[in-house]
Design brief:
By secondary structure, the protein is mostly helical. The chain has one domain. Helix content is 79%, strand content 0%. Helix 1 packs antiparallel against helix 4, helix 1 packs across helix 6 and helix 5 runs antiparallel to helix 6. Pfam families: DoxX. Its main location: membrane.
Length: 145
């Protein structure tokens, strides 16, 4: 049963990584723009006031920068989760991104993805030996000894 749960955690990690990579890639190649989003969030009744202010003063003046950072960050998180490199940190950044999307009232598949990232963080002990780092260590031990 332990191996089945470990395999399930691996599937969640791979699917979460692929989903966020594809989202980032589509934003990167599809002309992602934050220009109109600031006004939508300002008029949104579901977003908290502190989030609206943060978006107005931290995101809106630097939209050109964020239009590059967001898609590249999503793609890097996806790659890290798929290969299992720094997967805990990638999942934590994934949680951060999904919470931001939910606060901006962009609720699509983000709650499901948020649940996947939380599951990855909470089950890191199950995923440690299914990562690129574990495979690297396995080969280094064989070479050394």
């Amino acid at each position: 049963m332990k191996k089945v749960f470990q395999f399930l955690c691996l599937i969640v990690r791979l699917m979460s990584g692929l989903m966020i990579f594809i989202q980032g890639y589509e934003k990167f190649t599809g002309g992602f723009s934050l220009t109109g989003l600031t006004h939508v969030i300002a008029q949104n009744e579901d977003s908290p006031m502190w989030y609206k202010l943060m978006f107005e003063y931290m995101i809106e003046p630097y939209t050109t920068l964020w239009e590059w950072v967001i898609p590249l960050g999503e793609m890097m998180i996806g790659i890290a989760l798929v290969i299992g490199f720094l997967q805990k940190y990638a999942a934590l950044f994934g949680i951060f991104i999904m919470i931001n999307y939910i606060l901006a009232d962009m609720i699509f598949t983000y709650p499901i993805q948020l649940l996947g990232f939380i599951m990855i963080v909470l089950n890191m002990d199950k995923l440690r030996n299914l990562s690129a780092y574990a495979i690297y260590n396995m080969f280094m031990k064989k070479e050394a000894g």
